Amino acid sequence: MRTPAETMTAYFEGWRRHDAESLRDVLADDVVFDGPMGHVEGVDDNVTSLHGLLSIVTAVDVKHVFVDGPDVCTVYELHTTETDAPMLTVNSAHVVDGRARTIRAIFDPRPLLGM
């Protein structure tokens, strides 16, 4: 079984490969995602949402990873086709049995909204 850090490393490696389907292996069936652009529940809807997001992602540059037991906080720069500059993002995940159960992304969505 993966550690929480290994789980979230695999999650972001899937992003880097633009492979949303591989994320089924690291997301719990009842995973809940919350972020400035929406709320998504369940592995199927999360993978569908990630297909859309990964279509605009050009790079993910992880800066820091902090682990506290089952909780992993990843600070990264998200590069997209929709923004001129990378978006500083914080991702907080709670991992149970090698799968992310909750994920919360924190970032300023204004560049994606054309503001």
UniProtKB/TrEMBL annotation:
It comes from Actinomycetospora flava. This is Nuclear transport factor 2 family protein. SUPFAM superfamilies: NTF2-like. The lineage of its organism: Bacteria, Bacillati, Actinomycetota, Actinomycetes, Pseudonocardiales. Residues 9-99 form the SnoaL-like domain. It comes from the Bacteria. Pfam families: SnoaL_2.
